[in-house]
């Protein structure tokens, strides 16, 4: 299992010290998918691993993508309590049955952009389906969130990730088409806030 143990946000530095980016921001590029499957605010974050040198300059994108929840997702809002999480997508499909072996990743389930990864059930009766957002092979799911759902809310970008997906080599440069950059995502969130304020 991939170990992701980086701080959620960089530790604040004093005015005299330069701001040092967290390991997550140094080695992963954040991409976003807003309103997944047309459901308002159900935003996902895709952390794409990148190859960097010691200065943090990106040489080339890597294929590995870590699927997480964006900060604006309803599950991460204050007062929301997760009752349970399930990787059982249907009667005949469970992401827990994904078994990967060998150099060519035999046995890995293939996912489309809209393929469901898991379902999150909350105490208020709401149910949320988390999708892959990128095409590729399912490398692993995070079974830790099954035993301790709260880490998905406490550390969504690190220990609380959903799954790891490996896009096809020939699609590694095009997987971000249709996704939002950090800046574009922030603009979407601001527009939502302004729209809500205007109608209240």
Outline the structure in words.
There is one protein chain. With 200 residues, this protein is of the alpha+beta class. It contains four helices and eleven strands, in the order H-E-E-E-E-E-E-E-E-E-E-H-H-E-H. The protein has helices at 23-27, 144-147, 150-154, 182-199, and strands at 28-33, 44-52, 58-69, 82-86, 88-90, 93-94, 110-111, 116-122, 127-131, 136-141, 163-166. A six-stranded antiparallel beta sheet has the order 1-2-3-11-10-7. A three-stranded antiparallel beta sheet has the order 4-8-9, with no helix packed on it. The protein starts with 22 loop residues before the first helix and ends with a helix.
List keywords for this structure.
six-stranded antiparallel sheet, 11 strands
SSE layout:
Blueprint lengths: L22 H5 E6 L10 E9 L5 E12 L12 E5 L1 E3 L2 E2 L15 E2 L4 E7 L4 E5 L4 E6 L2 H4 L2 H5 L8 E4 L15 H18 L1
Antiparallel strand pairs: 1-2, 2-3, 3-11, 4-8, 5-6, 7-10, 8-9, 10-11
In short:
With 200 residues, the protein is an alpha+beta fold. The protein has four helices and eleven strands, in the order αββββββββββααβα.
């Amino acid at each position: 299992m991939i170990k992701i143990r980086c701080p959620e946000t960089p530790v604040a530095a004093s005015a005299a010290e330069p701001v040092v980016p967290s390991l997550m921001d140094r080695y992963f590029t954040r991409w976003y998918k807003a309103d997944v499957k047309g459901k308002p605010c159900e935003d996902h974050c895709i952390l794409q691993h990148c190859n960097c040198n010691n200065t943090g300059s990106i040489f080339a994108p890597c294929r590995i993508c870590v699927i997480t929840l964006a900060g604006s997702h309803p599950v991460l809002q204050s007062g929301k309590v997760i009752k349970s999480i399930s990787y059982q997508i249907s009667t005949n499909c469970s992401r827990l049955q994904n078994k990967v072996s060998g150099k060519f990743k035999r046995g890995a389930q293939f996912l489309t952009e809209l393929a469901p990864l898991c379902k999150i059930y909350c105490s208020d009766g709401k149910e949320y389906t988390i999708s892959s957002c990128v095409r590729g092979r399912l490398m692993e799911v995070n079974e830790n969130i099954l035993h301790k759902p709260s880490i998905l809310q406490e550390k969504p970008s690190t220990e609380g990730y959903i799954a790891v997906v490996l896009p096809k080599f020939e699609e590694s440069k095009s997987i971000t088409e249709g996704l939002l950059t950090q800046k574009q995502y922030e603009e979407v969130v601001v527009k939502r806030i302004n729209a809500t304020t205007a109608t209240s």
